[in-house]
Amino acid sequence: MGFAYRWRHMSGDEKSPISAAQAREIFAPWKAVPAVVLAVSGGPDSVALLWLAARWRRGLKRGPRLIAVTVDHGLRPEAAREARDVKRLAKTLEIEHRTLRWRGAKPKTGMPAAAREARYALLAGAARACGATHVATAHTRDDQAETLLMRLLRGSGIAGLGAMTEETAREGVLLARPLLDISKARLIATLDAAGIGFADDPTNRDPAFTRPRLRAVMPALAEEGADARTLARLAARIARANAAVEVLADGAERYLTAVDRNASLGGYDARAFAGLPEEIRLRLLRRAIGRHGHEGPAELGKVEALLAALDHAMSDGQARLKQTLAGAAISLSKGRILVQPAPPRRSRKR
């Protein structure tokens, strides 16, 4: 049970408040789950998530336990006050609330990514502690459009250009984004109609970070037809194509096993592997490296370089190759491509 990623347009003006009926539609997949952690920072999106979820829960005779969690990263002096404001609002809505703090040294570079990882780790820990199956975040259609643009600029493959999904397994819980097809403007209109205030985080406008810079150019893109709705629809279509390619990759793995008399030796028959489409071969290599490597996911660009090296070795008649990538050892020998765990790296002596 969960949110299946799909493009679905919620009826209503883009700046009209979300109705009780629409809230029931948004949160319907949660009706039978035991508990849900709501990630509430105090900004308009997450406060709207809290308000709408509480309104939905009140209309049920039985439903999940809701726990609002605010993460104070310790990066802004206003954060502690904002957490207290969320706590007061949660109390009026009869929702449990907890504030968690990101303690310890903070990195000097890559702060947004580090803060995001710390936040998800704390939220997942809170969910496991209270028996929640889901952690809900308030990502909106606007966030989805920005994510697509960020990944496009970084040269992501189609898996990355599918952007965010409505539900993702992470750290033993399901990370849910129930507002992913709703605009920020509608969430603000919902709070205005209910007379509920929210915090304004100035880092959301800080041009030192990528998202605010992209946010600043969105109006110009919208004038050319690339508004948030169009970009989110594009992400959904790419995600749909990616899911289809994943099914083809599953079939290709079964095919390689079926036609390979030496499948028990592991790896792939090089000739059969070479006959597959390039995108499928890239995915099979990345899967194998993920299974056998011990240094995290392999970067797509590096897998592309590895595949090019394999193709060159086979076409050049070398028929031999050895490389390591992401903690996996990849070799081509005697007509077979093998992917195995690589020996641990030796630490350099000082």
Describe the structure.
With 350 residues, the chain is α/β, with parallel strands linked by helices. The protein is 47% helix and 14% strand. It is built from twelve helices and ten strands. It has helices at residues 20-27, 44-58, 79-92, 111-129, 141-153, 158-161, 184-194, 210-223, 228-259, 270-274, 278-292, 300-315, and strands at 35-39, 65-72, 96-101, 134-136, 167-170, 173-176, 268-269, 321-325, 328-333, 336-341. The strands form two sheets. Strands 3-2-1-4-6-5 form a six-stranded mixed β-sheet, with helices on both faces. Helix 1 crosses helix 2, helix 5 (141-153) crosses helix 9 (228-259) and helix 9 packs across helix 11 (278-292). Residues 1-7 have low confidence and may be disordered.
Question: What is the topology?
Answer:
Blueprint: H1 20-27, E1 35-39, H2 44-58, E2 65-72, H3 79-92, E3 96-101, H4 111-129, E4 134-136, H5 141-153, H6 158-161, E5 167-170, E6 173-176, H7 184-194, H8 210-223, H9 228-259, E7 268-269, H10 270-274, H11 278-292, H12 300-315, E8 321-325, E9 328-333, E10 336-341
Parallel strand pairs: 1-2, 1-4, 2-3, 4-6
Antiparallel strand pairs: 5-6, 7-10, 8-9, 9-10
